[in-house]
Amino acid sequence: MTEINNAANTTSKRNAAIDGMRAIAVIAIVAFHLRPIVLPGGFLGVTMFLVMAGYFSTVSLLKMFETSNAQKSPATSEQTKTPVKSKIFAYLKYLFKRVKRIWPSTIGIIALSAPLMWLFSPSLLTKLQSDALTGASFTSNMAYILRKVSYFEQSGLPSPIKHLWYLGLIMQIFVFWPIILWAILKIVHSKFVRMCVTAILMLACSLANLAITIFYGDGQTIARVYYSIDTRAGEFLIGALLAMYCTWFSERSIIKIIADACKYIVGNKSKKTQIEKIEDSSEIEAQNTQNTQNKSQSSEASIPDDLLAGLQVNMMESDKDGEYDESDESNNEIAGEKWQQTNESENTDKVKTDLKNKSESGKFAKIAKTLQKPLSTLQKSIIGLAALIFILWCLVKEDGSKTWIVYGGYTIFAIVCAILMWSCLQKNSICTKILEIAPLKYIGLRSFAIYIVHFPILEILNP
């Protein structure tokens, strides 16, 4: 419960740097809609919004599920029905909050656009009428998939509410993600494995995006890929993964988590090796006994017959007479020297092996100790700045026809956005100080309103 509270405290306070990220995203989208040549990669601002939505939505859901689990009380079968009802109620309350936040603005912009189109651009009124119902019901993206309306196609008159496809996509994700996350939390008990399951879902969405593009896209981002929930949810899940990390492992570095996972795997392998050694010890001992017997037989066979007969006679005579034979002592001394040399060589090899194992384990311990150290503020700042530079470069230089964007680029860009967001959540980061400047903060606080109203206005003003 404390982990959830810590994460909630970090997100309940308004983060000015994340508002700066919102500002960059909405500026990129508006510039792309104004003139694509101004900012060719501005459409990637939607990916930034998806990552941020995935983070905040998942943090809220984890807090909600943790609160409902804390309120459970073991009792009779009648009382066990209460947590189920409470979860359903919490789920409906979660959806109602999202609809209450988004739907009034959506209805408002549709209602406001109709008279404006009738007065200033009557040619767009037909487009508005055809998309009004799907826009109000958050199904614009599905309609565009069925009608094969490309997001990047510039020919013809676009719908003045075409941008509402994103609200439809995000609302559809809000419907399904709480159920999926609840199932993951219910079935999987390890937090690390929960993140792995979420990562697998993210990879599945990315692979679906890639597969559809390869087989049907012909080198372009088609409507089926750009608008669909199964191909774009991966970007949302990357933000969800960041939320899980910040909620469950906020006091540990990512490098330490990887080191612990490697240590766990190596530990299992060493245990397995020890078990195999124990199982094989009896076989090794039996083999050594057999080798000793073979050596004694071979040494006995190498003695000439006449000498062996003489030895037998001498042994019998010594048994009978009780006399001492010097040949027995010399033979025993030779055998003892050979045994001592063999034993010393075996001990030397064993000591060398032990020293080698100790040196290797010492190196591993040093590496593990180095990896487990948390990143410094400077290192976090460098990582965040590198992510910010990459994002700005993509917004300025890339466009929807670039090969790497079409074939998996949305996932890569989303991962970099998550890294930038992680840097914004760190204290005293240089990247945080850059993004929390007043102009970006001002725009970021109004990013949703700007996104809602900008497209109809641009269509009216566009000659």
From TrEMBL:
InterPro entries: Acyl_transf_3_dom, Acyltransferase_3. The chain crosses the membrane at residues 20-37, 43-62, 102-120, 164-185, 192-216, 236-255, 381-398, 404-422. Residues 287-299 have a biased composition (Low complexity). Residues 280-301, 320-356 are annotated as: Disordered. Keywords: Acyltransferase, Membrane, Transferase, Transmembrane, Transmembrane helix. The keyword Nuclease does not apply. GO terms for molecular function: acyltransferase activity, transferring groups other than amino-acyl groups. GO terms for biological process: lipopolysaccharide biosynthetic process. Residues 15-253 form the Acyltransferase domain. The keyword Transmembrane applies. Residues 320-331 have a biased composition (Acidic residues). Pfam families: Acyl_transf_3. GO terms for cellular component: membrane. Residues 347-356 have a biased composition (Basic and acidic residues). PANTHER family: ACETYLTRANSFERASE (PTHR23028), ACYL_TRANSF_3 DOMAIN-CONTAINING PROTEIN (PTHR23028:SF53). This is Acyltransferase. It comes from Gardnerella vaginalis. The lineage of its organism: Bacteria, Bacillati, Actinomycetota, Actinomycetes, Bifidobacteriales.
